[in-house]
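Working notes for the structural subgroup meeting. M.R. asked for a predicted model of this chain before we commit to crystallization trials. I am recording the input and output together here so anyone reviewing the notebook later can reproduce the run.

Input as submitted:
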Amino acid sequence: MALLRELAATHWEAVVLSNLAEVTYELAQLDEASDFVHRALEAHRELGNQGDGGNALRILRAVQRDLGQPEEALRSAQDALDIALTHRNHMWEGYWLLELGRAQLANGAPHDALVSFQQAASLQRRLGDRAREARAWDGAGETYRRLGRPTEAADFHRRAAAAHRELDDLWHTALALDGLAGALREVDETEEARRHWAEALRVLAPYHDPRAAALRDRITAALA
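Returned structure, recorded in token form:
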């Protein structure tokens, strides 16, 4: 950031602000993340960088959700998707539909969320992005659980976990396994649920950041 400022590279400075927002969000430093992402958004808008601005809105949506601002998060996610649709950019659309689905779920609109996750999965399949397609499956699994349909939820979480495992994406494997175990417990498949939670704990072992610690504690409590 300091070097880019010296070089007056305003575009790349704005990009780095977005990167700092994402990193601090992942570290659960929400106040810092909020500051960085709002600065990034302002910079991108001044520069007319709609694509990068949409990505900043994606990060802002996540920050707002964790700050307990679901309605604001929904607006940010929809604004990002509108940018993708305006530009007819399917890569942006597929990615930001994931954020819209999560925001809709947080706002108590699971049927809308399911449509968004299904559209995201379809687009990601066409684009050949297996990782994001698997994230869409995991979102669908969470949505089916909210709809009181744990059997379908387990099917989607299982597919997501298998894909993330093949891609060696440990963090998203753990998230999908946690969702799968939760769905299985709801249909009284307790022993299988415990096996998946135990695997999730093994997968989480290399991670020591606050989000991983919170997930580990939640799984440990579920197993107890």
